[in-house]
Amino acid sequence: MIDLSQNEVWFVTGSQHLYGPKTIEQVAEHSREIAAFLGASAHIPVKIVFKPVLTTPEAITDLCLEANSTKNCIGLITWMHTFSPAKMWINGLTRLKKPFLHLHTQYNREIPWSEIDMNFMNLNQAAHGDREFGFIGSRLRLNRKVVVGFWQDADVLSSVGAWTRAASAWADAQGGKLARFGDNMRDVAVTEGDKVEAQIQLGYDVYGYGVGDLVKVVNQASDAEIDRLVQQYVDEYDVAPALKPGGERNTSLREGARIEIGLRNFLEAGNFKAFTTTFEDLHGLAQLPGMAVQRLMRDGYGFGAEGDWKTSALVRAMKVMAAGLKGGVSFMEDYTYHFSASGDKVLGAHMLEVCESIASTKPRLEILPLSIGGKADPVRLIFDANTGPAIGASIMDMGQRFRLVANVVDVVPTDEPLPKLPVARALWLPRPNLKTAAAAWIYAGGAHHTSFSFSLNAEHLQDFADIAGLELLVIDENTKLADFRDKLRWNDLYYHLSKGL
Ligand code: MN
Predict the structure, then answer these.
(1) Pairing of strands 8-13, 100-104
(2) What pLDDT was estimated at residue 501?
């Protein structure tokens, strides 16, 4: 469902006429080579499109306006192989609406000690050309990512790649639609927020629907469609015998399939990228959608439970960033703790809705009671998550701004099997430890819901936050609680003052 290969990043090199046509040709040749190399890198999932070298304010402005109006263009990479006086860039950059990355590299890796002359120096002068360009970016207070290093090095390619993923998620959110079935879980605070402000700042639009609108589409699912989907379940999962065709609870599985068909059709027909449900508003649905939500998330949809549209949009953004990477992205909730001498741990799960993209083994498809909500028993996929480094991120409306907070964690195998736990789960050690991480999270006002990923790291989220103009607080192995609390106070001032009127 998510394909980043159609997205274009334009590779833009600045120069000036003073060097004469021969040098400009050389600059163009080198730029073309670098653009092709970036485009071919496995680290970079989008197309890198070479653009002719820019040497005048008019050409720079035209390029920026063309980028704005080109749908597939998700951003620019800028590089000053030679010197490009930055007043030439003011008109273009102030009009540019797409994100940009400033690649501070040099065509030559090393100084040719015995050969170097002034011709070489005048061609390979990014060391000062990029400083002139950097000044105007900072003078204009423009958000951009600066990546430094030789263009063939893996760390440079990886950093550029992370940014292209963030820029892809940003492009995906602009004009993106999210369907919200029912409202918020009554009385819950952190899942609420200003949807108009979210649309202005983050680009996506939240559409509210009565659950009856969904029920109508769910009821249109035909027996033949349900037969086919049930067969897919049997092929893909370890299905509990009672749920299989002929089993005494097969009707419940068919209800689950009906809900999946209806939800999918509703989302496809409306071109939605994400959705929410709430167990408090299920009138006309036989079960809380569990397996259906898990499978739709697997296919790339964002999801938030209890009406949590902000987390749903964040799950979608992280799904886009993670497209094609191993590991997966899921809606998640910090559920319960294990305080232990071997390290305090968090058991993460939800009532049902954990995405199978993070499963370590073939999920079991089962039916068990839902201990809350008073509806029929829902079908659900049960599994243990992958293990290894992961990141959980949460977005809150703090009243004056949205805040993104993230914790880097290490997911580990459970100490013992969990034979009676009827939901998918992940067990992790937060970095630097639970005491610091949970205190920092709580001081920051972080939600209980997160978007949780094995595919992404703090760099992806930082790039996304920078593009979106979002506050981001990362809790990781370097976090010191006292410093973190200072940062919260300073950020309150910064984000208040920087907004102006
Ligand atoms: Mn929840």
Answers:
(1) unpaired
(2) 59
Query: Distance (Å, rounded) from C-alpha 326 to C-alpha 432?
Result: 24
Q: What is the pLDDT of residues 193-248, one digit of tens each?
A: 999 999 999 999 999 999 999 999 999 999 999 999 999 999 999 999 999 999 99
Sorting pLDDT into bands at 50, 70 and 90, what band is 487? very high
Interval between CA 35 and ligand 1 midpoint (Å)? 45
For CA atoms 105, 108, 111, 117, give the dihedral sign. negative
* pLDDT beyond 70 at 353: yes
Cα(262) to ligand 1 centroid in Å equals 23
Tokens of 367: 């039916």
Q: Are β-strands 274-276 and 402-412 bridged in parallel, bridged antiparallel, or unpaired?
A: unpaired
CA of 311 to the centre of ligand 1 (A): 10
E strand map for 143-212: 145-148, 177-181, 205-209
% of the chain exceeding 70 in pLDDT = 99
Strands 8-13 and 329-338: unpaired
Ligand 1 centroid – CA 226 distance (Å): 29
**Cα–Cα distance, 274 to 301 (Å, whole number):** 5
For residue 277, report the distance from its CA to the centre of ligand 1, in Å: 11
Task: Specify the DSSP class assigned to residue 128.
Answer: H
Tallying the residues shown for the chain, one arrives at: 501
Closest CA to 348 of 318, 387, 404, 303: 387
Phi, psi (deg, nearest 5) at residue 187: 75, -10
What pLDDT, on the 0 to 100 scale, is given for residue 50? 98
